[in-house]
Structure formats: structure tokens, C-alpha cells
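Appendix C: a fully annotated inverse folding record. The material below is reproduced so that readers can follow the format used throughout the book. The structure is listed first as C-alpha cells, followed by the designed sequence.
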């Protein structure tokens, strides 16, 4: 699948200090025509200053803060950036409920949901081998009904850097989008992305596709049978050599299987993959080597 709106663009990755979430600033156009519109994808914990530096240095004008899904290691700094630039947060409607209560929505059945405010936090950074670390984080273990007890690798890492649940804020404007027929083309000023629904890690997990002109300026190499040039931001659906975990609340193995089969393996081989954590890869490389895409 490819995306519309093939125009020059640039992408800056700001790696979050918590779980190494890849926060991406996607700017339209080429340097020299500032201010240029941009969007921010996955504002993880501690990226706000780094993002602000990119925005300032590159002469950018943020139009929205997007999330590939609603897990808190992808959304922690969204409120600060939305406020700073007076823009809404956008994510798939199926994950929007997580934004108000990011820790509560990580609590597994029987692990503290219900009567008490037991909040559990689990690392969500993928299965075997997401380089970003923390991939094998324990899910949650709030003690049922015992107040706010947060455990798990994510919570520990957050707390170690001063990010405690009590200091979390949700953006004031959170707008979910739907994906009729499985995708939606979203436009933010001069930036157009195709949002592709890819549930399994969470209900509303989304891939964002950015189409880029081919090497000769031909949009995506159209008409030449060449592989399409562009970037797909895969969040916690696909990592280099791995995939996202499905054992957190809202995750589902069978759904992930369908996503991998029907969405991920049908991506254009020429796309560069920027996962939610860990190193960049390509669709072609993952199709050839990722054991979960067999
Ligand atoms: Zn996640």
C-alpha cells in the first residue's frame, strides 16, 4: 500500500530517554521555504525539548501531535507539545480512551482494575529484540484495590527519570480518527500521511505512511515498476527483527496475525521502516529476515 501526496519531506528522530521511543518530526517541503508545516509522531516521555529544538532550528510549524497508539511511552509529552504549539493530538479513535488514563489502560484483568485505583504499567516495547530496551518489561502488577501502586519496567523507568503517574497530563484536545476501509488520508497543512489501521498490539494501532518522490523526482517511482520510496512509521506493530507484544490489555494475538498478514506484508518493499523503538529498517529487509513475517 502506498500513500498519496508525494512531496519532498524531511524526518528528524528524537529518541526519548524513556524506553528509547522514536519520536519523529515529519516536515513538508525543503529547507528555504520556512516556516514549513510539520507533525510530531509519538511524543514519548522527555522528548519535548529535543522536538522544540528541531522545530526552531528547522523553522517548522507543528500542526498536530500524532500517536501510533495510546501507550504512555508514546504519548507522555503530547500534552506539553500540544500546548506549546496550540495543536490537537490525533490518534486512531479505538485508542483514544487510553489518553485520559494511560496507566489504568495498561492494567490487566485482575491486576488492579476495579475497585481500587491500582495502576499497573507494562513496558510495551515489543517482543524479542526491540533494541530500545525494556522490551521484556513485566506487565503490571498493581495490587488489586491497594491504591496507586505502579510496577513494571515502564513505570520503573519512568519513575527513575522523574516521570511519575501523578504528573501525567492528557492533552486538552484529543481527536480520534476513523479508518474506513482500513485507512484514512490525513492532511495537516502541507503534510499528508496515510493512516493505516494495524490492530493487535492495541485496538487502535496505526501505521503512518509518508510518500516521497523517487530518486529522479518521480513520485514514488510510479510508472517504472520501481519500488516505492517513502517511510512507514510502524509504532509498536513492527520492529527491526521483531513485532510488538500482544499480551497487554487490548492486545490480541489473532488480530496481530491478521495485521501482519494483510497489512504489513503488503507494504511496498521499498519503504523505509521507522519503528516505535529501536533501529530503522526497510520493509524489504523485514520481509526477508523477520521471523514473525514468515
Ligand atoms: Zn505500545
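Designed amino acids, in order:
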Amino acid at each position: 500500500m502506498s500513500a498519496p501526496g508525494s512531496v519532498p519531506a524531511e524526518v528528524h528522530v528524537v529518541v526519548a530517554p524513556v524506553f528509547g521511543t522514536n519520536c519523529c518530526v515529519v516536515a513538508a517541503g525543503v529547507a528555504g521555504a520556512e516556516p514549513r508545516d510539520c507533525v510530531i509522531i509519538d511524543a514519548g516521555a522527555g522528548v519535548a525539548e529535543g522536538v522544540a529544538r528541531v522545530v526552531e532550528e528547522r523553522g517548522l510549524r507543528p500542526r498536530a501531535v500524532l500517536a501510533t497508539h495510546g501507550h504512555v511511552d508514546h504519548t507522555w509529552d503530547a500534552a506539553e507539545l500540544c500546548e506549546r504549539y496550540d495543536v490537537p493530538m490525533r490518534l486512531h479513535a479505538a485508542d483514544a480512551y487510553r489518553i485520559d488514563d494511560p496507566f489504568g489502560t495498561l492494567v490487566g484483568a485482575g491486576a488492579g482494575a476495579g475497585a481500587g485505583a491500582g495502576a499497573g504499567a507494562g513496558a510495551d516495547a515489543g517482543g524479542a529484540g526491540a533494541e530500545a530496551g525494556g522490551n521484556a518489561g513485566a506487565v503490571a502488577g498493581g495490587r488489586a484495590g491497594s491504591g496507586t501502586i505502579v510496577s513494571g519496567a515502564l513505570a520503573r523507568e519512568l519513575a527513575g527519570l522523574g516521570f511519575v503517574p501523578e504528573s501525567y497530563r492528557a492533552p486538552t484536545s484529543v481527536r480520534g480518527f476513523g479508518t474506513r476501509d482500513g485507512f484514512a488520508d490525513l492532511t495537516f497543512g502541507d503534510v499528508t500521511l496515510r493512516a493505516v489501521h494495524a490492530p493487535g498490539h492495541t485496538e487502535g494501532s496505526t501505521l503512518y505512511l509518508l510518500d516521497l518522490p523517487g530518486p529522479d523526482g518521480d513520485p514514488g517511482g510510479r510508472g517504472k515498476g520501481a519500488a516505492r520510496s517513502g517511510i512507514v512509521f510502524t509504532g509498536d506493530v513492527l520492529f527491526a527483527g521483531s513485532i510488538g507484544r500482544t499480551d497487554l490489555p487490548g492486545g490480541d494475538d489473532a488480530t496481530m496475525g491478521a495485521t501482519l498478514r494483510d497489512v504489513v506484508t503488503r507494504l511496498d518493499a521499498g519503504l523505509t521502516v521507522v519503528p516505535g523503538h529501536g533501529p530503522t529498517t526497510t520493509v524489504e529487509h523485514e520481509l526477508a529476515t523477520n521471523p514473525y513475517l514468515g
